[in-house]
Amino acid sequence: MPKTALKLSKTAELIWKKGKSAPMPKDLEPMLATLVTQPVEDEEWVYEMKWDGYRALAYLENGNVDLRSRNNKSFNEKFYPIYDTMGQWGINALVDGEILVLNDQGLPDFSDLQLWRSEADGHLVYYAFDLLWLEGRSLLDLPMEERRQLLKSIMPGFPAVRLSESLSATGEEAFKEANQMHLEGVMAKKKGSVYVPGARSKDWLKIKTEKRQELVIGGYTKNEGTNKLFSALLLGIMEGGKFNFVTPVGTGFNKKMQELIIKKLKPFETSKSQFDTEPEYNKPSRFRPNPPKAEVTWVKPRLVAEISYRELTRDGAFRQPSFKGLREDKKPSKVVREIPAKTTEVVKDSKMATQKILTAPPKKERKTLLNPKEESQTRIVGGHELRFTNLSKIYWPKATKGYKKEVSKRDMINYYFQVAPYMLPYLKDKPHTLNRHPHGIEGESFYQKDVKGKAPEWIETFPYFSYADNREKEFLVCTNEASLLYMASLGCIEINPWHSKKNTPDNPDWCIIDLDPDKNDFEQVIQAAQVVKTLLDDIKVPSWPKTSGSTGLHIYIPFGGKYSYEASKEFGRSLMKIVHAEIPDFTSIERKTANRKGCIYLDFLQNRPQATVAAPYSLRPKPGAPVSMPLHWEEVKKGLRNTDFHIGNAVGRLKEQGDIFKGVLGKGINLEKAIKNLENIGH
Q1: Region of 135 on the Ramachandran plot (φ > 0 left; ψ -120 to 50 alpha; else beta)
Q2: What residues have CB less than 8 Å from 351, skipping those under 6 apart?
Q3: Where is each ATP-dependent DNA ligase family profile domain found (predicted)?
Q4: What is the spatial distance between Cα 110 and Cα 80, in angstroms, rounded to a whole number?
């Protein structure tokens, strides 16, 4: 056997040795199944799920990976997480399988697969169901069950690469289970069968399930140049006193059925559409960019049709609808949307679930919003359309410690997508000053306060009057993930919120102490922070530190929006006077830089209206892509550096520890009591 990371059991090695010595096939056409109407009840057949995804052959050789579609198109870039995972397998093999997107119950969602652009769009998995070549030997002529046994023995145990398990069930039982769980169907494979590339074999059978829905006919179309009586029925449903259009159906009719339908619709023809909103029956789509011109005949909603369909898309559209028949026994007013029972209720007692045929994906984990190749991408975030451009532009031109590459605009936006759930509580409903670096940290940057008439309509704003320009202007207000990512799309490397919310603009959520060094060693910054912590402990005031991501440290005291900026500033002043008195040799409370004599500035003046500092978890426009990282007080000790936390390790720390800064968002201190305690110390 060639030298690889692969180790086979004795049984698996015996099977492998039955294969013929041969080079790995190139551009192999996969074996296809024959569609049948019913499962085969015979012990010579083995059943497995028919996965609703994209067929994909995985060529793994000498560390290289090539994912190819059924039509020999590359999936390497499109489904890059599967490509990357396959690269870790460490074997030489040709595997046949299917790429899927799984929902939270572990069921395939073909609609999400079609729309998949990045890991934000769903959990990709590769279900392997056949092994065609392994370590220099062709397995095509081995019996199906031996190929399967060998495949099972080499599965890598990656969550994203799974074995398509055989079902311990008869054909009828397997089909019933698939139908109950709203799956596409089942596959039947004959024991002893070989793999015949490119053949539609009767040794592989596919049996599809289908769903049904009753709808009401509101009209029919006839395409220009057709010799059919009609091209499609226009179907709707009575909801809330309105007749709502649902879908056209253009398949499932023979000539005789069309004649019957036209005859029955004739008495109900009318000159106007009865739908609440007239369907756009000539509208182009991505599947039919140049549809044939059609004429429409409207009818009153009196006849009920039954259709079959593959699935409902997320927006309620029917996928692959087909006419099944007229339901003259049903009144239009009695037709309702049939909503399937929750999958979890069906699955929990399912044989397939107990056999672990279906497995929910791991806990949803944010990875990428933007895929690694497309230079411009449009994403829907929270219902809002965001366009991201110039994604390969380098924002941090030198390799970052722990990241080992230059950091691009794409990397930055993906970072903010990952940390958004942790970061948003500190940004939500706060006006922002935009610090834009459209060409990265070495390019020209500028601050932007006014976004009036420049931001999308869905972005909330906060008004202010500019005396310099003598006109009304507007700050951007961050309200959700979409507005955070919109700021990032503008090149806002760092995120700078106010300390107060738009509804309470004069009452900050926290008091902040900014320890801002000049020529000081960072060890002195740490010492100053420890003195602040001791003082706050003495007056029984809680506090939370974080790195600034630049040169200093920030210390937050929760105010809960109960006190004014003036009260916050004066409380900070009182604290810093005491701290300065204790360590006067290397600290200063002088506002003017020239008067500080190179000492650490104990800055309490950040506690004023419209002042901003980098938010918790914000990146900074400094070499190494540092992050303003919340800390445990025990970490504020000798050896700490601002450069310890950066784009390469911040997400991992958050996943491990969660948001350790959230105490800042508590109800706030009792300021009167804290001031009294401070006065007692002063005495």
Answers
A1: left
A2: 167, 168, 169, 173, 177
A3: 117-242
A4: 18
- Altogether, the residues listed in the chain come to a count of 683
* Tokens encoding 446: 């500028």
Q: Strands, DSSP E only, in 292-351?
A: 294-299, 304-309, 311-312, 318-319, 322-326
Kind and range of the H or E run holding 384: strand 384-388
Secondary structure (3-state) at 338: coil
Q: Which two tokens stand for residue 430?
A: 């706060």
CA separation (Å) from 673 to 24, 307, 571, 578, 607? 78, 72, 12, 17, 20
Give this prediction's pTM: 0.77
Q: Which long-range contacts (CB under 8 A, 24 or more apart) does 196-199 make?
A: 196/31, 196/140, 197/25, 197/28, 197/29, 197/30, 197/31, 197/140, 198/29, 198/30, 198/31, 198/32, 199/31, 199/32
For the stretch 266-296, pLDDT in tens is 999 999 999 999 998 877 665 556 777 899 9
For residue 457, the one-letter residue type is E
Q: Which residues contact 479 (CB under 8 A, 6 or more apart)?
A: 428, 429, 460
CB 497 within 8 A of CB 425: no
- The total of other beta-carbon atoms located within 10 Å of residue 21's CB is 7
Query: Which of helix, strand or coil describes residue 488?
Result: helix
What are the chain's domains? 10-208 (3.30.470.30), 211-334 (2.40.50.140), 375-497 (3.90.920.10), 506-616+661-683 (3.90.920.10)
How does residue 344 score in pLDDT terms, banded at 50, 70 and 90? very low
Tell me the two tokens of residue 502. Answer: 């738009």
Alpha-carbon separation of residue 358 from 162, 181, 352, 354 (angstroms): 10, 10, 6, 9
Q: Supply φ then ψ for residue 418, to 5 degrees.
A: -70, -40
Query: 555 and 543 in contact (C-beta within 8 Å)?
Result: yes
| C-alpha radius of gyration, the chain, whole number | 33
pLDDT digits 0-9 by tens, 518-545? 988 999 999 999 999 999 999 999 999 9
**298 phi and psi, to 5 degrees?**
-90, 145
